[in-house]
Write a structure and sequence with these properties.
The protein is of the alpha/beta class. Among the domains are: 199 residues, Aspartate Aminotransferase, domain 2, CATH 3.40.640.10; 104 residues, Aspartate Aminotransferase, domain 1 (Alpha-Beta Complex). It contains 14 helices and 13 strands. The chain has a 7-stranded mixed β-sheet, with helices on both faces. Strands 9-10-13-12 form a 4-stranded antiparallel β-sheet. Helix 9 links the parallel strand 5 and strand 6. Helix 1 packs across helix 5, helix 5 packs parallel to helix 11 and helix 12 runs parallel beside helix 14. The chain is globular, with a radius of gyration of 22 Å. It starts with 5 loop residues before the first helix and ends with a helix. The relative contact order is 0.15. Bound molecules: pyridoxal-5'-phosphate (PLP).
Length: 439
């Protein structure tokens, strides 16, 4: 095990002091009491799968969110609503930034931002020197893809139909800039773990000069949780590196980056972590920093991850509120949160799968699904009709969902509950699907 240097320890303790001054826990589960306005901690000793169905506990958690129900938001896949404590903290931070202005930004903010970065890095299981903030996952991932040095003329870059469109675009842009070819694959439908692994194995076999693979941890179209650890190892065995789009994964279920092994990872903080809109992060593994070129024209030193994206002035208060969002999340526990989200997803997807004419695209295998699941009616992937279906769900049944495009087999409607979702709203969705499938 590598020992932390004295400097790292000092930086760590200064960071902890900066967080403590803001009333935050320094290091997750081993640290002090939750803040006064956090939700009640879960009952001790109850396993996540059992707690998932404890409606009394989850009603108290849901009360921590101030959300409208006209229509009911079943589109939490876009961005995550802040809980009341996080929103209150964010508003306090905005007030402080506005009141104290540059005095705060110049004197105090840098240490706070460092402390928040430490906190995010710890939650991801990596070093603070391997993490930098971005404004969203698109910026984080496009930065790494565009500046990736490992692709040359005649090489290939590989991505799948279910990967996020903006990242597909960046992969195409990288290939065009380097004289490389674009290789693509389709994720099988219905998806299974082995089916996904086989699809990537076949694609890598077809394109032996693949150097960079875009993998999505939880894709935005069907919510499938991809077997990213195995896929990263498979790519590495064939001489390709992985850029992992974990925009939807961080905060949706527990994992750490070292266990996945991808050298380049983008995460969102404004989706499942529940921080304000406008914050994300990227990870470049220390031993692979040189594989990502500095931001164009960035003056030296280039030995720090910060030289890879030059954002300029950002939303100070949003960055500060990341710590509040992580406090809130730690109080509930990521495993408890993950189990509850899957419980909510199962509440509608399992009965809906039994309705004739409803195709649930996301498997029930607990390793392959989280909060998000998509469906089609009677195998119909038509773009206009799926958009119409989402509209009907909103206008006739008061349930807000979204149609998604880009799947090889056609469009679908995506449903994403969150901790604020009440189970009866998901029962309403099942009834709505019964009516629509029979029409
Ligand atoms: C899988 C995936 N990657 C990336 C993104 C982009 O996130 P952002 O809009 O924050 O840039 C999204 C957004 O929904 C997504 O679902």
């Amino acid at each position: 095990m590598t020992m932390p240097s004295r400097r790292t320890l000092l930086r760590g303790s200064a960071a902890a002091a900066a967080l403590a001054a803001l009333g935050h826990r320094a290091g997750g589960l081993d640290a002090a009491e939750p803040t006064a306005d956090a939700p009640p901690p879960p009952p001790a000793g109850v396993p996540p799968d059992v707690l998932a169905g404890d409606e009394g506990y989850w009603r108290r958690v849901a009360r921590q969110y101030d959300v409208t129900e006209t229509p009911v938001n079943l589109e939490a896949g876009y961005f995550g609503t802040m809980s009341r404590p996080v929103l209150a903290a964010y508003q306090r931070h905005i007030g402080r930034v506005n009141r104290e202005g540059a005095t705060f930004a110049r004197r105090e903010y840098p240490a706070i931002a460092r402390a928040v970065r430490d906190r995010v890095a710890r939650a991801l299981g990596v070093g603070a020197d391997e993490v930098a903030f971005a404004r969203n996952a698109t910026e984080a991932l496009q930065t790494m893809i565009r500046q990736y040095r490992g692709v040359g003329a005649g090489d290939s870059v590989l991505f799948a139909d279910l990967d996020y469109p903006a990242m597909q675009d960046a992969m195409r842009g990288l290939a065009a800039a380097r004289g490389a070819t674009v290789a693509t694959l389709e994720i099988p439908e219905p998806a299974s773990r082995q089916g996904v692994l086989d699809a990537y194995a076949a694609a890598l076999e077809r394109h032996p000069r693949t150097r960079l693979v875009l993998l999505t941890h939880v894709n935005n179209k069907t919510g499938l949780v991809h077997p990213v650890r195995e896929l990263t190892a498979m790519a590495a065995a064939r001489g390709a590196e992985v850029v992992l789009d974990a925009a939807h994964a961080f905060g949706q279920f527990p994992f750490t980056l070292p266990e996945i092994g991808a050298p380049f990872v983008g995460v969102n903080l404004h989706k499942w972590v529940g921080a304000p809109v406008g914050v994300a992060a990227f990870h470049v593994r220390r031993d692979r920093l040189d594989a990502i070129a500095p931001a164009p024209g960035e003056p030296p030193p280039h030995d720090r991850i910060d030289s890879r994206l030059h954002t300029g002035t950002t939303d100070f208060a949003a960055v500060m509120a990341i710590a509040d969002a992580l406090d809130f999340q730690d109080t509930i526990g990521v495993s408890n949160k993950a189990a509850r989200l899957r419980h909510l997803r199962d509440r509608w997807a399992i009965p809906a799968r039994r309705i004739p004419g409803v195709d649930i695209l996301t498997p029930d295998d607990p390793d392959l699904v989280g909060a998000i699941t998509s469906f089609r009616l009677r195998g119909d992937g038509d773009e206009r009709r799926n958009a119409g279906l989402a509209r009907t769900l909103a206008e006739e049944f008061g349930l807000f969902t979204v149609a998604r495009s880009g799947l090889a087999r056609g469009d679908c409607v995506r449903v994403t509950p969150a901790l604020a979702t009440r189970p009866e709203h998901l029962d309403r969705l099942v009834e709505a699907l019964r009516v629509l499938a029979a029409r």
